[in-house]
Amino acid sequence: MEFLDNTILIVDDEKNTREGLRLSLEDEFDVYIAANIAEAEEILKNEAVDVMLTDLRIGGENGMELIEKTLARSKPPVCILMTAYGSVDVAVEAMKKGAYDYVSKPLNIDELEIVIKRAIRSRTVEEEVVALKAQVTERYGLENIIGHSAAMEPVFDTIRQVAPSRATVLIEGESGTGKELVGRAIHHLSGRPKSKLVTVHCAALSEQLLESELFGHERGAFTGAMERRMGRFEEANGGTLFLDEIGEIDLNTQVKLLRAIGERTIERLGSNKPQKVDVRVVAATNKDLSEMVREGTFRDDLFFRLNVVAISMPPLRARKEDIILLVEAFLKEFGEENGKHGIELTNESLQLLLDYDWPGNVRELRTAIEHGVVMANGSKIGVRHLPLFLRDGSHEGFRGGNSSPDTPPAGEAVRDEDLNLARVEEKMIRLALKRTGDNRTEAAQLLGISRRTMQRKLKEMGLTES
Questions:
Q1: pLDDT above 80 (res 411)
Q2: What DSSP state is assigned to residue 92?
Q3: Using CA atoms, how far apart are residues 310 and 178, in angstroms rounded to an integer?
Q4: Most buried of 48, 172, 349, 457 (most Cβ within 10 A)?
């Protein structure tokens, strides 16, 4: 039965009514009965009750008072009032006190079952909404921006302060520091979390495509515009528009963006008809916009519009005390994804992560942990399971470990000829090739250069790719 697991408490001082209702309902529900408020409260204390069906008059006691007390519990059941004194006034009072519905005596069992089932469905939906809100908060609220370091405290404080406002926010920081997470947290902690959050990655689009993406276009506005298209400002109307890599937009688009933010008005490409939009703009950049203003590549008026509130995301190297927290979160995430629950790092691996400077920030750390989880055979991620760039810098040749034939032992005097830059560069390339088993792509990655640069340097060294 669909509702057999749901529990109903019937409170009525008339034995025949209690027993009759139990016999009528127990085929579909788990039924408890109480003859007075004391018995009802004892059952509510010890059992998980989904629906309470109570009479208005319970001996000399008042069913309304029982409803009020019951609804004050941390996880109250849905309350339905039974009354032989049915009237609009009684119904209104019951609803005001939080009752879901009321039924009049003499009871019609079929109608009562419909009311009970509707109440249970309502409770289920309400619980799902609460759970969904909790998931949204967990995913997009401050909980998802992991950190307890002193460097992150100003970030959290500013997010909490600015989120409920309508102010434009500029999030600054290096690539991989989590700027988009901050944008999402601001939106979902704002007064408009049910509205849309629309993201535009500005660097991924050409000038014309970016304009069309932001403001939309009319049919025939440019070659290939076969039909009218709504832009992201219209899509985000009533919500938040997150503009990532804002420093990449050209000056012409900057003018139109300034108008859209300042006047809350846009025009589609190919149209001269203005449209009002209610959009909160949150922008992010890994560039120094104030320096770009001085260079003339970013409009100062747009910068001032965007920079109403600034949030600066610290690089991971400035918040190394957060690495362990981040590692735990990523291990859990990727362990679950790959069916490796409870996977851990060895102490040596963790120390390697703590020693590294993470130029790619949190994004780079996340990738390194995913790599380790995938490559580990058991429940432990050892040094050999971590990416090559970490393994290379961890031991021999760089940090006083076993020296290689191409590097002098620790403490040995460096010869003048070893200071020749070209010779040092050649030694490092040969060392990288040796470390990677002559894999030239991996060697280029290890050295932090492109494959094309590696090809050129190998050619200069008189080595050609086989």
A1: no
A2: H
A3: 15
A4: 349
Q: Which residues contact 329 (CB under 8 A, 6 or more apart)?
A: 146
Give the pLDDT band of residue 414 (cuts 50, 70, 90).
very low
Q: What angle do CA 398, 327, 373 make, to 5 degrees?
A: 85
Distance in angstroms (rounded) separating the CA atoms of residues 374 and 203: 31
**Cα(268)–Cα(217) distance, integer angstroms:** 5
- What would the two tokens of residue 149 be? 């370091």
259-to-266, 274, 275, 291 alpha-carbon distances in Å: 7, 11, 12, 22
Structure tokens at 42: 């004892």
Q: Which two tokens stand for residue 318?
A: 């400035």
Paired with 266 in beta bridges are 275
Closest alpha carbon to 385 in 368, 363, 402: 368
pLDDT at 126: 73
Query: Which DSSP state fits 189?
Result: T
In eight-state DSSP terms, residue 286 is S
Q: For 311-353, what is each residue's pLDDT tens digit?
A: 999 999 999 999 999 999 999 999 999 999 999 999 889 989 9
Q: Is 74 helix (H, G, I), strand (E, B) or coil?
A: coil
Record the tokens describing residue 18, joined without a space. 């209690």
Count the neighbouring beta carbons within 10 Å of the beta carbon of residue 114.
11
Counting other chains too, the contacts that 429-435 makes at CB distance below 8 Å and 24 or more residues apart are 429/454, 429/457, 429/458, 429/461, 430/406, 431/397, 431/404, 431/406, 431/407, 434/404, 434/406, 435/388, 435/392
Q: How many helices (H) and strands (E) does the chain have?
A: 19, 16
Confidence band of 223 (pLDDT split at 50, 70, 90): confident
Enter the tokens of residue 63: 């069913």
CB atoms within 10 A of CB 75: 7
Task: Give 66's pLDDT tier (boundaries 50, 70, 90).
Answer: very high
Number of other CB atoms surrounding residue 54 within 10 Å:
26
Q: Are 198 and 235 in contact (CB under 8 A)?
A: yes
